[in-house]
User: Fold this.
Amino acid sequence: MSGRIDDLLSRMTWDEKLGQLQIVFRPNPDDAVALVRRGVGSTFWPPSAAATNTLQRVAVEETRLGIPLLVGLDVIHGQRTIAPIPLAQAAAFDPELVRSLAYLAATEARSGGVTWTFSPMADVSRDPRWGRVSEGFGEDPLLTSLLVTAMVQGYQGDDLSAPDAIAATAKHFVGYGAGEGGRDYNGADLSERALRTVHLPPFEAAVRAGAASVMAAFTSVSGIPMHAHRRLLTDVLKREWGFDGVVVGDAEGVANLVPHGVAEDVPDAVRQSFAAGLDVEMGGAPLALTADDLAPGRLDPARIDDAVRRVLRMKEALGLFENPYVDPTAEITAPDADSRALVRAAAARGSVLLHNDGILPLGEPRRLLLTGPYATSTDHLGAWVQFFGAHAGSVADELRARRPELDTVVEEGVDFLSGDDAGIAAAVEAARGAEVAVVLAGEPSALSGEAASRSDLRLPGRQEDLIRAVAATGTPTVVLLVTGRPLVVTDWIDEVAATVVVWHGGTEAPAAVVDLLLGVAEPAGRLPMSFPRSVGQVPIHYAHENTGRPAATGGTLTAHHHDVGLHGPGNVQDKYTSKYLDLPLGPRFSFGHGSGYARFTHAEPRVSASVFPADGPGDETVLTVTVAVTNTSDRRGDEVVQVFARDVVASTTQPVRRLVGFARKTVDAGDTATVTIPVRREALALWSDGWTVEPGAFELHVGSTLETTRMVTVVAE
Ligand code: BGC
Assistant:
């Protein structure tokens, strides 16, 4: 324990301690100065290096103990140079990319005095109605864990005091992604098994990666709001996992315990939260309270000391006691050529080719129609970045600037949301005269992010009508989907020649989109979340369990349906199986779906060991899977190899498939590459009062997507 922290603690008054345990939610600049004078230990970013120095100076020179501030900001996918949204980053299936984007963000943010970001979002999300799926890494615990790890490492580096490092926050602990009905802030009833196998692993990965802080979720888990959840905040996070960083509340999450109906009033809420294991309140609740409300007799002094120590340790690790100030002349306030190149490559790398009849890349069309609201919209940054003065251009401007010789006709046809279809006729007319029609459709960023749940997952407004009308002209039609969540594409996708999901791609999204269209880059990502056929299937994810009655085929709703099945021993016909009568089985596009412009064949997968010990350390690699992939096309391209496991017989029902490893590889035309993927023991473990690998057979399914896997069986002994 640092002498400085012991010394400070021994000299702090009760009020000075409580001051360290709050961050006031986005105060205006004048209020911020007053709050710091009053002893509040953390603040939101003011927003410039100079303004940050001003606040630090107040803290260091005008408060009794001169303790510097933590300066927090939601740097979610970039600060000045905006990277693709996290869901798009996940689609790249490339932890190294996520690490480099987080490092870029950290460099920009720290140069302006930010020391603490509220990212990464480690919530596994299996419900695309929830708007915040855009901020996370999708439906899979392993993919999410690996990318959370990469993001934490990218932000923090090896040394938090470095001028290119910021403290990361894994949020929202825990279960926020599971809110009933996909409605934001809604509670979830989560079994220990669901917590341990789906929702907790990415947070544990963040803790193992050294994340400096963890944010409590707004939601309740099995009846206890997370800001008051002592078992999860203290027993699991702090004791079981040994997390010694800061648990920060979400904005007003403490005061929200009152409407949740578990606290009588705000003082009660504050007391419950600190007792449960919260270290820093975000909002302002304690400021509003009287000394009596928070007197030492009503808050456990030992718990408060522990929280203060955690905050001071973070300040110390960030090097703030030595150097609270930043050099305003070195502040990065705009993207540069390198940062632009990185996020442009990232936007292409996370794009997913849903299908392609061969029309993409476009070759050399002379006359091209760009239609749809995203032809001219500049709304590519995603839902989080409206505060930082960043901006993107439009695809139409980008294409015209780069290829002035092309005859590019732009006819939006419809806007994002309205019912106005008057412009469709002009788009149809223009499509008739074009060699290719490109529809840039999607969700404006305001439809994703926080408090942006949707009950309808189709393209909003009249965009689907536009796609169908343009495709009906017979002109080959390509759809690019700019979106923050999986969409229901069922009603139009079979009418068009190719569809690419480009997500909200950030500062350089238009350049990346043009790169993809022209074949300068390829969309070789994979879906990190399934695209459902209909909202009625939701929540739907690939790692579901079998029922006792798995269906062989999907629904075939007919008038005679009630006659079809006879139900008896050995005679369970397809009627009495688990499915919807009115839908084929499975999502429209599953997790892991995607291809690219190159073509690949795979040899039979090989394993380094067909028998492995069931017992041993979780992080030990128990076998490797090797597969030779051959690029049979005439262009260089990327292949993603995914390895899914199925525990054939276990003591509890297990997912039909679960991702246990993956790799993305660039292969030259005509070449063969050997891809080797390590599989750790913990990836094959199940939870029953602890992690265990049960002896017996595991199927490993290896391939480019879930639908194209080959199987090899291994045995745990
Ligand atoms: C969000 C958090 C965010 C916080 C601070 C809240 O509304 O849920 O994700 O970090 O605001 O801006």
